Amino acid sequence: MKENIKYIEEMLLLQDKLNVATCGENYKISKVTKENRKIDFARCIYMECAELIDSLPWKHWKSIDAKWDIQNIKIELVDIWHFILSLALINNQKDVFTKVFNEYKNYKSSNKLDDILLYSKELIHYSSAKDCNLIEILNAFLILLDILEFNFSDLFKIYIGKNVLNQFRQDNGYKNGTYKKIWDNKEDNVILYEILESLKEVNFDVVYNELGKIYKGVK
């Protein structure tokens, strides 16, 4: 538990830094970006949930035997985690993490596909409600981690990588549309995952530099 809280504290700092770079220094007070666009982190959560669901063979009318893209499902969960952290930051609810982690009981899944769909729906429900409940959002998210046997240290590793990639995107024209997301026929998420797999220890600067080396050669 203490290790998880330590991870969360570091991720909150990194997320706040990324949010400042993306939205502006006053985003937590103004609730708008530096371009005066309304910020809605809760909406971001349920839209990312839809992308997670599309990584599953959920359609009853086709591809029912399709292989699961577990790697992408985990990346989508990390994307959702970015916005859960951001929701806590903008609503000044950082204390909720300790409360939820102290009270959470491990979840044992009997049917992974059904359970992932169910708790993704729970995430969508609680994040799209008029008064979205961060406690319920966190509980559903932790259950999804358990279902996928995705431990928190691995979440932390991929989060750091994805946080670096998000910062890298911002620094290379993501917001104005000049950033290239496909690198030599591979999405940048895939390149990131390959970099993370090759590293013994994940470090913000090392991952950023590795991305930079590869991106230089992208046409």
Low-confidence stretches: none
**N-to-C order of helices and strands:** HHHHHHHHEEHH
Domains counted in the coordinates: how many? 2
How many strands, which pairing sense, and closed or not: the largest β-sheet?
Answer: 2 strands, antiparallel
CATH architecture term of the largest domain:
Orthogonal Bundle
Helix fraction, binned, reads: 55-70%
| Sheet with the most strands: spatial strand order | 1-2
Protein name: dUTP diphosphatase
Organism: Campylobacter canadensis
Can you describe this structure?
- This protein starts with a helix and ends with a helix.
- It contains ten helices and two strands; from the N terminus they run H-H-H-H-H-H-H-H-E-E-H-H.
- Helix 8 (152-171) packs across helix 9 and helix 8 packs across helix 10.
- The chain has 219 residues and is an all-alpha fold.
- A hairpin with a 2-residue loop joins strand 1 and strand 2 (186-187).
- The protein is globular, with a radius of gyration of 17 Å.
- The mean pLDDT is 92.
- It has a two-stranded antiparallel sheet with strand order 1-2.
- It folds into two domains: 1-148, Type II deoxyuridine triphosphatase (all-alpha NTP pyrophosphatase fold), CATH 1.10.4010; 151-219, no CATH class.
